[in-house]
Amino acid sequence: DAGLLVLTNDGSAATMAIDALAHHGHPVPSIPQAMVARIRSVIGPPSACNPVDIGRGATAARYAAVLEILLTSHTPVTVLVMHVATASASARDVASACATAITAPSHVVLACLMGGDHGADERLRERGVPCYDTPEDAVEAFALMASLARSRRALLEVSSAFLPEPGAGRAVAR
User: Fold this and answer.
1) pTM to 2 decimals?
2) Rounded to 5 degrees, what angle do the CA atoms 76, 80, 85 make?
3) What secondary structure letter does DSSP report for 57?
């Protein structure tokens, strides 16, 4: 599991997500330095580590730009986009910009839009992005997905141990 990358405009929401990750036994993965440099080119010197705090004044365009960078990871990642309502960007605008930034299903994106208007997450849901009311709920969903992925891998490893060698059926039939 590559872990959960958190994109937010609010440090308190980020803290809730990181605490929930710890509660579920998941480490907070680092962002590769090349990606950190690209993120800093968009948001400046604030936090370009994980969680990526793009600041309370973040616009929908800034969300989309940073999300696009996070989704260029060469390893499978899950990105949690969290937005706390501000005057700088409505939840609806952030959801729309992020939905547009998701161009390929190679990575999983989760969302948590707090304090926004009802239905703001509709555009994300249309793109197949699960949306949650709280950071804890989103992290719990991530933890369940990670557990399912581990179980599937373990099942495939056990299953392949019981597969016959290629051509073994022919030898039995003779």
Assistant:
1) 0.83
2) 160
3) T
